[in-house]
Amino acid sequence: MRSDVVIDGLQYNNWDRALFQKTRDGGVHVVHVTVSYWEDFRETLLKITEWHRHFVNHSDLIMPVKTAADVLEAQRSNRLGIVFGFQNCSPINDDLGLVQVLHELGARFMQLSYNNQSLLATGCYEDEDSGITRFGKQVIQEMNRVGMVIDMSHSAERSTLHAIELSSRPIAITHANPAFYHPALRNKSNTVLDALAESGGMLGLSLYPFHLKNGSACTLQSFCEMIEQTVERIGIDQLGIGSDLCQNWGYDTLEWMRSGRWTFVADHGEGSAADQRWPDQPEWFQGSSDLPNIKSGLAQRGFSEVDINKIMGNNWLRFFQASFGPPATSDAV
Questions:
Q1: Rounded distance, CA 80 to CA 96, Å?
Q2: What average pLDDT does the structure give for the chain?
Q3: Is 122 in a helix, a strand, or coil?
Q4: Which end of the chain has fewer CB atoms within 10 angstroms, the N or the C?
Q5: Beta bridge partners of 107
Q6: Assigned CATH topology for domain 7-323
Q7: Pairing mode, strands 172-173 and 107-111
Q8: Residues 323, 201: contact at Cβ < 8 Å?
Q9: 234: closest CA among 298, 189, 295, 291?
Q10: What is the CB neighbour count within 10 angstroms for residue 128?
């Protein structure tokens, strides 16, 4: 295994050639990209079609990643590897068979719910959390079978713990932080962190301002202190970066993320109704090319090079190797 692979566990960008090149040139080898939020199966196919054109038109800069071996090929060929994921279960409609279809089309992550109750699980903004539904139990089994990772980043606590219990394979929380650091609804309790770590799951630490202490004014020192405290609680091997970076979008896209088509009024979620703009990123993390700042911050706190490389990508690579295919199959890395 190469020691310098850099993987971002979640970004949602309006990608174009300039951003592909900037991300690659910033030293990132692989990004898990959000393909769908509220889109149904047909709409998701259109999004995947758009990505196919990206892979053709920018083949010198990007490539699809479906296996852990593809990560190393992206690194070797100096291209940005792209992993498909969904931030909701809407792409499978109410059809269990679409899990395998979408896996065959490259999907490797799917959240069981976004902020609302879904057909599978409860989102973190609901008042009551009923846990994993009957349909959700079947979907978890099918995702385990084909090798699609269960992502509970936006799910409520009982549903998240229930998913960890039901899944025969480790799950991921691709983009959230510990609630002991900042009590955002999306951030995860010690109970969830402990269960995730015990089951071998992965936590991608988020750089989205609403998930950070002091928001956009969060310091690099504060973020690295959070990493240190999280390592003390759950160990070094279950942590990565899931920046939740959102670039090249207007405010209408932020409302789409929050509101979809389920409401006729704007759902402001973690933001203020008066704040009609994207939150500013911390000055030390404006984009993927600033990921080395995290490496420097961790080094200043005494982290070894081996442990820094685990957090920056090696842990995700190991997780991909175990997760992106049927349980009996592993890719040679």
A1: 31
A2: 95
A3: coil
A4: N
A5: 84
A6: TIM Barrel (3.20.20)
A7: unpaired
A8: no
A9: 189
A10: 8
pTM: 0.95
Backbone angles phi, psi at 28, to 5 degrees: -90, 135
Query: What does the alpha-carbon distance between residue 9 and residue 31 come to, in Å, rounded to a whole number?
Result: 6
**φ/ψ bin of 6: left (φ > 0), alpha (ψ from -120 to 50), beta (otherwise):** beta
What is the Cα–Cα distance from 59 to 56, expressed in whole angstroms?
5
Provide the token pair at 328. Answer: 């009996």
DSSP conformation class of 143: H
Assess contact for 201 and 173: CB atoms under 8 A: yes
**Which residues does 163 contact at the CB level (< 8 Å), separation at least 6?**
112, 121, 132, 136, 140, 150, 152, 155, 171
Angle between helices 68-76 and 315-323 (to 10 degrees): 130
Looking at residues 112-139, what average pLDDT do you find? 97
301 torsion bin: left (phi>0), alpha (psi -120 to 50), beta (else): alpha
What are the backbone angles phi and psi of residue 133, rounded to the nearest 5°?
-80, 175
Strands (E) in the chain, as ranges, are: 7-11, 30-36, 62-64, 80-86, 107-111, 149-151, 172-173, 202-205, 239-241
Given a contact cutoff of 8 angstroms between Cβ atoms, the answer to whether 203 and 188 are in contact is: yes
Q: What is the C-alpha separation between 225 and 229, in angstroms, rounded? A: 6
Does 290 score more than 90 pLDDT? yes
Mean pLDDT within 29-54: 98
Residue 242 in contact with residue 175, Cβ under 8 Å? Answer: yes
